Fold this protein.
Amino acid sequence: MTGVTTLRTRLRDHTGELHARLDAGLPLMRDDVTPAAYTTFLTRMLAWLQPVEQTLSNRLPATDLQVPFVERAGWLTDDLTVLGVPLPERAPARCLPVLESPSHAVGCWYVIEGAALGGQVLSRRLRTQLGVTPERGGRYLAGSGTATPARWRDVCGALERYDGPPDDVLDGARRSFESLHAWLL
C-alpha cells in the first residue's frame, strides 16, 4: 500500500536518533573493549532489564501480539554467574521507563526485541575480541541464535497487527530508549 506508514516504520523513525546515540555510547562497540567493560554492561543491563521484564509480564498484551514474551534477564544472570561477577541490585524505579499502559509496554517490547537482534552483532564481535561464547558468559547476547532474525520478523508482524494507540507505543519506545541510555551510559 502506497502512502501507508506502518507502526514499525514509525517506531524506527521516531526512535532512530535515540537508538543511534545509545549504540554510539556503548563501550562494547569499541575496538578496545575490555572484559571489565563487558561485565559492567552485563551488570547494568541486568539491573535494568529484570524489573522492566516484570512490568512487561504484567502489562504486555501478549494475546493481542500472538508472539510469546521471552524473558532474558535469566540469561544475564547466567552470564554473570559463569564470569564470577556478583549479581547487582535492581535499578531504582526512577531509572526505569514509565510504562502506564499496554501500548507503552508494546513500545518497550519493541526496544527489547530490537536489542536482542542487535545482540547478534555484539555476540560475534565479542567472540572475536574477548573470547565470549554463549557457554562462556555470552548467553544474553547470543539470544536465540540463528532463530533470532525469524523472531524479529514475528515481532514486526505483531506490531503491524497491534491495534492499540500508536502514539502510546511510540511514547513507550522513546521512554525505554531514554531510560536505557541514562542507565547504561
